[in-house]
Amino acid sequence: MEDYKPAGFWIRFFANFIDGVITMLMAFLIALLLNDQEFFNNRLEETSRSEDIANLIYVVIFVIIFTGSKFKGSLGKLICQIQVLNSRDMTQISLLKSIGRAFAYVISAIPLLIGFMMAGWNKEKKALHDIICGTRVVYREE
């Protein structure tokens, strides 16, 4: 088994930030196509139909399918040169595990995002959803 350098909190945060920017760009394009005035009205209390569609598309295609494929991560993770692997043998995760990992994100988010912050203070740089699903986020080999 090769030695992989674990990806810490800040690089993972940046990858998720990139994912958020991409999702908002998708929502903007969808809002233009659907003429979704709710998206363009400056309101913060709830998401628009375009944002909901963009979030669903992004989670299904880029978070679940990309992570469970040869890409081994979302677009943000690809840009940041990090990948999601099985923690036991450092191999590509399955599509089923990728789906479970997406649901485990919710558990990481519930207690004030502490599940995500765990990647910053534990030795293996694992977030709560990584511990639950048996995954690791590591830097890609060049």
TrEMBL record:
<dbReference type="InterPro" id="IPR051791">
    <property type="entry name" value="Pra-immunoreactive"/>
</dbReference>
<feature type="transmembrane region" description="Helical">
    <location>
        <begin position="102"/>
        <end position="121"/>
    </location>
</feature>
<feature type="domain" description="RDD">
    <location>
        <begin position="6"/>
        <end position="134"/>
    </location>
</feature>
<keyword id="KW-0812">Transmembrane</keyword>
<keyword id="KW-0472">Membrane</keyword>
<keyword id="KW-1003">Cell membrane</keyword>
<keyword id="KW-1133">Transmembrane helix</keyword>
<dbReference type="InterPro" id="IPR010432">
    <property type="entry name" value="RDD"/>
</dbReference>
<feature type="transmembrane region" description="Helical">
    <location>
        <begin position="53"/>
        <end position="71"/>
    </location>
</feature>
<feature type="transmembrane region" description="Helical">
    <location>
        <begin position="9"/>
        <end position="33"/>
    </location>
</feature>
<dbReference type="GO" id="GO:0005886">
    <property type="term" value="C:plasma membrane"/>
</dbReference>
<protein>
    <recommendedName>
        <fullName>RDD domain-containing protein</fullName>
    </recommendedName>
</protein>
<dbReference type="Pfam" id="PF06271">
    <property type="entry name" value="RDD"/>
</dbReference>
